[in-house]
């Protein structure tokens, strides 16, 4: 009798769960989201990526490692754009600029820079 009651309670609980899950509306989608700054955080709440308009009106996208150190920076303003890829010591590994002409700078492991 006790086992039948337990089984019945489990079945009722399952039925309630199924009804609740079935009645959930699908995830809402948006055509447009407007924000002044977008931040992506990891499971610990640490900022890992951001997109924002700086005070000088440059739009900047930054990617950070697990320690919060910026490793990638992509920026654009009315004068052009730039890409910066930083190494493990935050030295520029690749620096590409497209402002009144273009330049591409590569830094090797010894710190020697070559600009194209």
Question: How are the SSEs placed, and which strands pair?
Answer:
Layout: H1 2-23, E1 37-41, E2 47-53, E3 59-64, E4 70-77, E5 80-86, E6 92-98, E7 102-107, E8 113-115
Characterise this structure.
This protein is α+β, with helices and mostly antiparallel strands and 116 residues long. The chain has one domain: Outer Surface Protein A, domain 3 (Alpha-Beta Complex), CATH 3.90.930. The chain has one helix at 2-23, and strands at residues 37-41, 47-53, 59-64, 70-77, 80-86, 92-98, 102-107, 113-115. Strands 1-2-3-4-5-6-7-8 form an eight-stranded antiparallel sheet, with no helix packed on it. The longest helix has 22 residues, at 2-23. The termini are far apart. The mean pLDDT is 85.
Brief sketch in words of this structure:
Helix content is 19%, strand content 42%. With 116 residues, the protein is of the alpha+beta class.
Q: What would CATH call the architecture?
A: Alpha-Beta Complex
Strand content: 35-45%
**Mean pLDDT level:** 85
Biggest sheet, spatial arrangement of strands? 1-2-3-4-5-6-7-8
Largest sheet: 8 strands, antiparallel
User: Rg to the nearest angstrom?
Assistant: 26 Å
- Summed up, the helix count is 1
What's the number of extended β-strand segments? 8
What global shape is seen? Answer: elongated
């Amino acid at each position: 009798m006790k086992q039948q009651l337990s089984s019945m309670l489990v079945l009722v609980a399952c039925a309630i769960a199924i009804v609740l899950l079935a009645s959930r509306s699908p995830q809402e989608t948006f055509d447009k989201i407007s924000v002044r700054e977008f931040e992506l955080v990891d499971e610990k709440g640490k900022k890992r990526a951001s997109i924002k308009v700086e005070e000088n009106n440059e739009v900047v996208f930054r990617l950070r490692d697990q320690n919060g150190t910026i490793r990638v920076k992509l920026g654009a303003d009315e004068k052009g754009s730039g890409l910066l890829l930083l190494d493990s010591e935050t030295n520029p590994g690749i620096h590409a600029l497209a402002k009144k002409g273009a330049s591409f700078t590569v830094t090797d492991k010894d710190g020697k820079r070559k600009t194209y």
